[in-house]
Amino acid sequence: MHTPTWPQDGAKSTKPNKFTEEVINEKSQKKVKTPKAEIQQVSISSDALKEEMENFSTKKKSLKRKRVKDEPKDGSSHSVSPHLKRKTDESEEEAHERNSKKRIEKSVKKEEGDHPLPKKPKRTKEEREEAKLLKIQKKEEEEKNRWRWWEEEKYEDGVKWKSLEHNGPYFPPEYQPLPDDVHFYYDGKKMKLSAAAEEVALFFAQMLDHEYTTKKVFRENFFKDWRKEMSPEEKSVIKDLDKCDFSEIHAMHKARVEARKNLSKEEKQTLKEANQKIVEEFGYCLLDHHKERIGNFKIEPPGLFRGRGEHPKQGMLKKRIQPEEVIINCSKDARIPDPPPGHHWKEVRHDNTVTWLASWTENIQGAIKYIMLNANSKLKGEKDWEKYEIARKLKSCVDDIRDTYLRDLKSKEMVTRQRAVALYFIDKLALRAGNEKEEGETADTVGCCSLRVEHITLHEQLDGSKCVVEFDFLGKDSIRYYNKVPVISKVFKSLKRFMDNKEPGDELFDRLNTSLLNKHLSSLMPGLTAKVFRTYNASITLQQQLKELTNKSDNEAEKLLSYNRANRAVAILCNHQRAPPKTFEQSMANLQAKIDARKEQLALAKSELKQAKKEAKDKGSSDVKLQALVERKKAAVKRCEEQLLKMEVQATDREENKQIALGTSKLNYLDPRISVAWCKNMDVPIEKIYNKTQREKFAWAIDMTEADFEF
DNA sequence: GTCTCGACTTAGCACCTACAGT
DNA sequence: ACTGTAGGTGCTAAGTCGAGAC
């Protein structure tokens, strides 16, 4: 039988999982620094909590029993054939539903056009009701079909699944040669390219609008790889990229893009349906008899590699992957997916200690690429849950760990001191671990352990603070990290020591690497690594900020604003940046123009008010008409002021968010249970915080979290 | 210990679409 | 009804980290 594995219900569990124990411990040994609200919660914890947990697990059990009744665990509620096609009925239904809804909407629209007014309200109302009902039905259906894996017992260590069946990856379509009227020119002369060379030429031509086709490294890499695809004759002719004229190919590509945009509704619909079919066939697998969505079921198409930042390999040809290079992973008794006709797989294996369904080796970095499940799957969800539980565990011992590394700052051993300073950074600034990277293989980016002397500047005094460290380096994805941080003097002095007699290009922590650091961390707490600090600090920050910023009495908009602000605080901590949207300046200017216009309007309204007041005064307060006018003008001024304020807030909000990406932290660092509990406490519907995809990903948290959850 | 590889998470960008504001 | 924009989605690069070979 399954044992429900909720943290909250640990005392009841006959076989508490590894998460459960920790939570119990944590609840009983709250730290001194605990904020008020937390203490309150702890104080009720003993009896009341127990009772609550009892209720809770009974509730859950009855729920489960019911579900077991309508949906046998072995999946026999689905049709019988083991072939994956059987799983389509559900999505067909969905699609059908969606389609019929669309049709409904369409017909409504049409009628609106044909008979502008009379028929509209009645019909839409009916239709709307129907659509609404359908939606609710669908939701219920989905809820019923959801695999509540979080209520099941975990597998023994290392085992990821017992059965796995799928249709293999989807391969991108073969290359279609250029039409005869589209030409490539070399040195002004028309030249017909071989299919292989032409395909690669098209990759380049497609990118011509991009800035990076002008970069030297990109062009050189591209040209070198392109030449490898050429026939001997082509090679002997084409020797200089600057003499290549791709303009016709480029124009054709642009025309194609344009044509695709201008397709009729029907044609677009047809395309959509064709895509849907592919998704239905390749987008799902059967994992332990449950239908699960695959995250990336398509083999990556060939193209020109574009790394992030100043990548030394940018422009290289990313080759087309053949089935002969692909390894399939599925269970022994499963139907082995068919390779495309005339092809075979590199290997078929049955390894249930890994989560991937297919893999291949990519030719740029020699890295392995995987086909894996969607974020809403059991495999991903369970891991995610575990991640947050480890972070919560860190919460219970973070004070000790901080004491430890502060003490280590005084150590005689250089390694220990370096480790302590690195940990201080990782904890305080949420820096990444910073593995070493092979020089010349990737863009020059660093994390904590790989920081170099040139990346920090020490200031004894800066902006009124003492011991300020100025960071300036490129992190993951070549995103710049720039920060000025006051640090404790011991750290400051240590840094000075570390930098003694070093060149700018030398490693700051020359005795330290991530492996050493993580070994140390895992000795302090099982499962602890550098990245757990990021998760922990992100989640705890969200929780604190939410507590600080939101009041129950706020209205929904205010609550949501506070939530976003809390989210933003985390994003800033984790340095989650984005390129300002391309239209940002323009749209900001538009907004500013509106604000200016409104300001003028306000000034006008004010002067009119003044005028009205004056007139009213002159004529004496007895004039009712003038009094009314004054009131009206007053109202106008007020309205204007409000609108202006609203726009100004919007402007600041947008400006603040200009370079900050909220999504990454929401998706990867914030324990969803914090958000779910907050929603419950604040009476905010979860839909306001998480969209559909996010709700699916965090289904486990939404289902199991009560209002009293504490990270 | 050091290096390499494999498996997995985290990340930003480009596109597209739905929706809010006029 | 129109349009600009924010937000959703797909894509795949770029990290982290543990294990095992040497």
TrEMBL record:
What biological-process terms (Gene Ontology) are attached? chromosome segregation; DNA replication; DNA topological change
Q: What class of enzyme is it?
A: isomerase
Q: Which residues form a coiled coil?
A: 254-281, 539-657
Q: Where is this region: Disordered?
A: 1-130
CDD domains linked to this entry: Topo_IB_C, Topoisomer_IB_N_htopoI_like
Q: Does the UniProt entry include the keyword DNA-binding? A: yes
As recorded in UniProt, its EC number(s) are 5.6.2.1
Top-level taxon: Eukaryota
Keywords from the UniProt entry: Coiled coil, DNA-binding, Isomerase, Topoisomerase
InterPro entries named in the record: DNA_brk_join_enz, DNA_topo_DNA_db_N_dom1, DNA_topo_DNA_db_N_dom2, TopoI, TopoI_C_dom, TopoI_cat_a-hlx-sub_euk, TopoI_cat_a/b-sub_euk, TopoI_cat_euk
Domain DNA topoisomerase I eukaryotic-type: where? 304-683
Q: What is this protein called?
A: DNA topoisomerase I
| Organism, scientific name | Oryzias melastigma
| High-level lineage | Eukaryota, Metazoa, Chordata, Craniata, Vertebrata
